Structure formats: C-alpha cells, structure tokens
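Final report, closing paragraph on structural work. Over the funding period we assembled a curated collection of sequence-structure pairs, and we close with a single example.
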Amino acid sequence: MSWWSILAIYVLVWIFVAFVMLPFGVRTHEEMGKELTPGQAESAPANFRPGKLALRAAGIAAVLTAIWVLNWEMGWITRESFDFMLPPSQRG
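Its predicted structure, as stored:
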C-alpha cells in the first residue's frame, strides 16, 4: 500500500473520529453554573476545546489506521471471510 493511500485513509478516519467525539465531554453553561450571554443559545457549549479534540482524534485515528494497514498487509480479514454473502456456488 502506498504512503498516499495510507495518508488518505488516515485523514478519512481522523475526520470520522473527530465527528464521533464531538458531543462527548461538552457541557452547557447551565450544567457548569455559568451565566449565559444575552442572545446565546442555551445549548451552546461552555467548555469546547477543539485543540484537545483534534489531538485525541489524531491518536485514535493513528491506531485505527495502523490496524487497517496491518490487516491489509497480513490479510487477517478478507472478502472471503464474509463468504455468507457469496452465491452458494462460490462458497468454499
């Protein structure tokens, strides 16, 4: 697998992980006991830290991408692993 492919997979996994992690650990102003700014939505986060989110997503994405590449190279799980999806005449 080329480095460009690995980089593309990493970026896609990073984006997916970052979006999945967005709602975790975020609290509203009411939950933290802070005062709302006039015109601010009540559901707006009070402790959103995008840098911390990006670093966590980078670490998780690196691990998941490494597992993906190792599986690609070692062939642990292949299409043949899902032979229940093949027509009966092609099952081994």
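The CA atoms of residues 31 and 46 lie 9 Å apart. The chain has a mean pLDDT of 90. We thank the funder for supporting this effort.
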